[in-house]
Amino acid sequence: MTDNNGNDDEDRPTRGSMRFQDPETTTPREPTLAEKRARLRAEEEQRRREEEQRRAQQEAESKADTRRKVLAGGGVTVGLVGLVAAWYLVAAPEDVTAVCTTADGTVVDDDYCDDDYVRSHGGYYSGGWLFLPSPGGGHDQYRYNYGGQGTVGQRVEGGTFTRPSNAEIKTNSGKTIQRGGFGISGGSFGKSGGS
């Protein structure tokens, strides 16, 4: 069938239908100036957003790196402080009082365990014991009890006859036998170990 103009009805689009272009044969039209400007603006906006994201990511990584370094430094500081505190706690000398006793554990005057006093009275030191000549002949034996208590003439209560190594040891009269801190001692009696 043909219309009044001599066109075939088949070539003419019917109302409500669409015509499709063949992509192989159709040439795309040149974009308008407004379309070109819009495309350029969209591309610039996309580049700007990507640059902002890149900058924000670098800044976040830098902050995270700084935070890690600060936390690591703080952890090291806290660790060192803890280590030093623990060392001081372990190394802090204990205060111990030494009581001079006879061989049977009776408390006597501190002079009998003082190596200067013993030597000046003809005595000597050997194996943790101090020996003083006795009036009836022979020698009386004396040694320190560490941490025990008692008054002259009574038996010592508690303590030990083994010298503590990390302790500040003083007699009841106030004389320092051994300075604290890993067994550093003073005097010939302190150096020899006196057990």
Task: Characterise the protein shown here.
With 195 residues, the protein is of the alpha+beta class. It folds into two domains: 31-92; 94-191, no CATH class. The chain has three helices and six strands. Strands 2-3-4-1-5-6 form a six-stranded mixed sheet. A hairpin with a 5-residue loop joins β3 (129-133) and β4. The longest helix is centred in the N-terminal third of the chain and has 59 residues, at 33-91. It is rod-shaped. The chain starts with 32 loop residues before the first helix and ends with a helix.
Briefly say what this structure is.
The chain has helices spanning 33-91, 115-120, 187-191; strands at 94-102, 124-126, 129-133, 139-146, 167-171, 176-178. It is α+β, with helices and mostly antiparallel strands and 195 residues long. The relative contact order is 0.10.
Give the strand order, joined by hyphens, for the main sheet: 2-3-4-1-5-6
User: What is the rounded Rg?
Assistant: 50 Å
Tally of discrete structural domains: 2
**Envelope shape:** rod-shaped
DSSP, total strands: 6
Helix/sheet category? alpha+beta
Largest sheet: 6 strands, mixed
Strand and helix order = HEHEEEEEH
Please state roughly what percent of the residues sit in beta strands, choosing from under 5%, 5-15%, 15-25%, 25-35%, 35-45% or over 45%. Answer: 15-25%
Helix content: 25-40%
